[in-house]
Design brief:
Radius of gyration: 19 Å
Strand content: under 5%
Shape: flat
Distance between the termini: 54 Å
Number of helices: 3
Helix content: 55-70%
Structural class: mainly alpha
Largest sheet: none
């Protein structure tokens, strides 16, 4: 197995990349509920997979995470203010 080293230019900083990324998606607020719904669907499919394999002990984690993702999607679509 070989080791690969990666050189990063001095101009590239994670903070700059994060700032640019946030600026790009700032105008797309509907991505949050879509991501929440997509994640909830994936987690429900994971739950069905665990049920099919008889792994009932693994069910609480994807179910809780699916519920949280669905809650975020609902809150963003309904524009609910908490507080």
């Amino acid at each position: 197995m070989t080791t690969v080293s990666v050189r990063v230019s001095g101009d590239v900083r994670p903070s700059k990349a994060l700032h640019v990324g946030l600026w790009v998606v700032q105008g797309l607020p509907m991505l949050t509920p879509l991501a929440g719904v997509g994640l909830a669907i994936v987690l429900l499919l994971a739950t069905m997979f665990h049920i099919s394999r008889g792994e009932l002990g693994a069910l609480p984690i994807p179910l809780v995470l699916a519920g949280l993702a669905a809650f975020v999607a609902w809150g963003r679509v309904a524009r609910v203010r908490l507080g």
